[in-house]
Amino acid sequence: MTLAANSPTTFPISSARREPGSRPRRSASTSTLGISLVTLAALIALWFLAAHFEWASPLFLPSPAEVLTQFSAVWADGYANGTLLEHTLASLGRIAAALGVGIFLGIPLGLLMGLNRWVKGIFSVPIDLYWGLPPLAYLPLLIIWLGIGETSKIVLLSLSTFAPICFAAQAGVRSVPVERINAALSLGASRLQLFTSIILPSALPEIMTGLKIAIGAGLSTLVAAELIAAQSGLGYMIMSAANFLATDVVFVGLIVIAVLAFAFTSGMRWLEHRLIPWKGKL
Amino acid sequence: MLRIRDASVTFPASDGQDVHALDHVSLDIAPDSIVVAVGASGCGKSTLLNAIAGFLPLSEGSITLDGKEIVAPGGDRGVVFQKDTLLPWANVLDNVALGLKYRGVSRDERHERSRRLLELVGLADFAEKPPYELSGGMRQRVGIARALATDPKILLMDEPFGALDSLTRETMQQLLASVWAKTGKQILFITHSIEEALTLGTTIVVMSPRPGRIVARFDADFVREFAQSGDIGPIQSHPRFIELRQEIRSLIHQPEGARTGTLQ
Description:
The structure holds two protein chains of two kinds. Chain A is mainly alpha-helical. Chain A has helices at residues 2-6, 11-18, 23-52, 64-76, 84-115, 117-131, 135-146, 150-174, 178-186, 191-228, 234-243, 247-275. Helix content of chain A is 80%, strand content 0%. The longest helix of chain A has 38 residues, at 191-228. Chain A binds chain B through residues 21, 177, 179-180, 182-190, 193, 197-198, 201, 276-278, 281-282, and chain B through 53-55, 72-75, 77-79, 81, 83-89, 98-99, 101-103, 130-133, 146-147, 150, 156. Chain B: Residues 2-234 form the ABC transporter domain. Chain B: InterPro entries: AAA+_ATPase (IPR003593), ABC_transporter-like_ATP-bd (IPR003439), ABC_transporter-like_CS (IPR017871), ABC_transporter_ATP-bind (IPR050166), P-loop_NTPase (IPR027417).
């Protein structure tokens, strides 16, 4: 106290040190938000200029205005057997199903692999092997086995979301500090109590990270799968538009995917903030 | 009464030579006593504590608590670690109540008992805070309250104040002395500080490394005076304190020097 009173210049430093919680981080994120918004505006302005002065042929680079017009047209009248909403919902449905499968299989199996040598020994080799393969390389095989319908696509996507979630749950179990486990045991925890009260919450930050990776992997696999074999979805819409050189529709599709990806990331960040505010502390 | 008889712990080392972390150690910890094990790092004092806690199996010998052989960790031995092991997702009160929750004590009762313990360690106003908003010393106090919550027969403390600054450390020593005077718990306390050992111990055992052994034991009762007065100054300038400190210091340093001599 006296130190701060005597030398006021040291005061902000000491007060920042006293509160290592969310305040510095929040002010840091608002300060980058401004910069990011300016960058975004500059990119759009550049696009505007490039289209206006026809730096590239309008056939290849549509103007923002055209894309906007096309957006409302695709929204209202549709393109390639469906409206924009129908295509978006088709894609979202697939990714939701795949994430569901990834979560409900990946988390329990990953936790078991972290806890048990036998489970880890049995499952780690097949998962490692298929996870290294590019999904589009085995998509033809899945189509031959499961047909051209939804099943092959959801299986493909589930395979790409399952592995990162499973790995993350396994890493989460292994990241539990041994002192924390010893402390719980010396407080009389049973094996079940140890799992539910210590291991599961300790693994949660890793699992959330795995979910973020799974969403990213799922989204990129999804669009790729729809480009090859689908009758609906954003990837299918983009591919159909590209066949007719309708670059404005391609842009509409890309923007929707970008917004979806951004929404997923923000949603996950919000969820992390709600579920694990203690992440990285202690 | 905790009885340690001929306890040995041997680890296989990477070079094929076994490491005798603990070599035929025998020790009794009577009720109402604070036994402090002091020694240089590697002398086996933490190994001894981990074996009593049940985290490490003995290679030889036995440890019994009130006649019951120790084979695994359990709620009858409360442990306070050097690194605090509080759960970041639970508030201070729920951290203290954790052991009671494991025993199936009802929510109201475990909260009431935990509040009383938080009062004992002077943290009644911090019950609802997350542990990461507390200072290091406060977190260790929560750790002590948590270990006491299940009313263990013995409290095992592994260099609990080792990571604290010297002022906080003194406050914590005072707190422990007064908690001990109030609860009469038997305590095994591990430290590498000779002053801390003499201030807190009713019995001080000096350990030496490779193999980990007890080389001397002293009885002291500075802690009773300390618990009453709360003033460390007069105790540490007591002639008997200075004399014991010198004796223990030479015990800890001498065999180490002799040993490096034989190794070379």
